[in-house]
Design a protein that fits this description.
about 220 residues; alpha/beta; Rossmann fold; 6 helices; 8 strands; globular; binds S-adenosylmethionine
Length: about 220
């Protein structure tokens, strides 16, 4: 019998951290540790949905939301009338339990994205909204390996494109628990390793940027 790969050590640290946030604050911006300001959460949802062919594409697009939290983006897309075949995956048990109960017409998987066996499934679009922001106690080197593995796996499972956000090095100060990347370095990485069809949005002012990579 095939053995299930064990959880990635960084995923395990993040799981512990985010389960505590959710336990404390519930299904909200603070619950996924984005802070109290809901408008920032909505800016990020809109950025992620910018990846998807819109509006109201005739055929439902499939979308995999990596690190989906409590499924807030699925509910937001529905509210905006963006028809999606939505699947969310998250390593936080309490968030996925909540999402399965409360967000209809969506599929939720509780697992570490890096360890999960998708058994040949692919998705039109794959997004990752917020995994690459906190490194907590992990080293930069470990986090770099984790980030590259995550981005590569996202790209390998997508049919049309991926989007993810990450903290920029253009900040006023560096917090030791956060993970920063120079936008030009990441752009160069995506261009040489994934695809020449890359867009970066560094203009929305949340000390982060969003990268879009298309096939
Ligand atoms: C900042 S939160 C964002 C949640 C959601 N995307 C949102 O914007 O509401 C990051 C999420 O990524 C999840 N996560 C971290 N590492 C993961 C991994 N390896 N696989 C799946 N989920 C992961 C955490 O549990 C957490 O819910």
């Amino acid at each position: 019998m095939k053995q299930k790969p064990s959880i990635n050590p960084i995923s395990s640290i993040l799981k512990n951290h985010y389960e505590k946030s959710f336990e404390k604050f519930g299904p909200s911006s603070a619950g996924v540790d984005w802070g109290q300001d809901k408008t920032r959460m909505l800016i990020r949802y809109n950025n992620m949905l910018d990846l998807v062919e819109k509006p109201q594409a005739r055929k439902k697009q499939s979308l995999l939301d990596v690190g989906c939290g409590f499924g807030g983006l699925a509910a937001y897309a529905r509210q905006k009338d963006i028809a999606l075949n939505y699947t969310g995956i998250d390593v936080a048990t309490n968030m996925i339990r909540w999402a399965k109960k409360n967000i209809k017409q969506s599929k939720f998987i509780e697992d570490d994205f890096l360890a999960h066996d998708f058994s040949g499934a692919t998705y039109d679009y794959i997004i990752c909204n917020g995994i690459l922001t906190q490194k907590l106690d992990c080293s930069l080197r470990e986090m770099d390996v984790f980030a590259k593995a995550l981005i590569h796996k996202m790209y390998s499972l997508c049919k049309k494109g991926i989007a993810f956000n990450i903290m920029t090095t253009y900040v006023n100060f560096f917090a030791p628990n956060l993970y920063y990347k120079h936008p030009a370095e990441l752009l160069s990485y995506c261009l040489s390793e994934l695809s020449t069809k890359v867009k970066i949005d560094h203009a929305y002012g949340l000390y982060e940027f969003t990268v879009y990579v298309y096939r």
